[in-house]
Amino acid sequence: AGGKHHGFRFVQLPINAQMPEAWVEPWQSVAGSNCTLMEAASRLHVAVVGSGPLGEAGLIKDFESRLPHVKSLAECTTVGAKLLQYARSTPGLLCMLVGHKSPEFVKLNLDLTFKEALSSETMLEAQTQLKQGNTGAAT
């Protein structure tokens, strides 16, 4: 992106329960070493801004039956909050952009600011459960 003094400091990409590749798939190469996008960004001092945690609200329907069984997300009260907590916990993420259609959803989702993000290990367990459609294993 323009050499050593490029000024490229931020990248925005979709990060959600259906698109975890940024932190689980080593599809980037930095200094001849394969790594995840999040690792590459860290090595190159580029901040990552996530977007699309609800997938235009389509993920709420897609994950509604799977998310209640992910115990690490149990304290979140709505499917939307579970998806936001999952996405905002992505290791190495600077921030997550999310839009809301109503003040009610803003209030509900602001409760997440009082919760700790999930640890990397818990994120990996949650991702495994979601990917496999696991319906009962504890995290």
Description:
This protein has 139 residues and is an alpha/beta fold. The protein has 6 helices and 5 strands. The chain has helices at 21-24, 37-43, 58-63, 79-88, 103-110, 120-132, and strands at 10-14, 28-30, 33-35, 47-51, 93-96. The strands form 2 sheets. Strands 1-4-5 form a 3-stranded parallel sheet, with helices on one face. The longest helix has 13 residues, at 120-132. The model is unreliable at 134-139 (pLDDT under 50).
Give a quick summary of the entry.
The chain is of the alpha/beta class.
Describe the protein's topology.
Layout: E1 10-14, H1 21-24, E2 28-30, E3 33-35, H2 37-43, E4 47-51, H3 58-63, H4 79-88, E5 93-96, H5 103-110, H6 120-132
Parallel strand pairs: 1-4, 4-5
Antiparallel strand pairs: 2-3
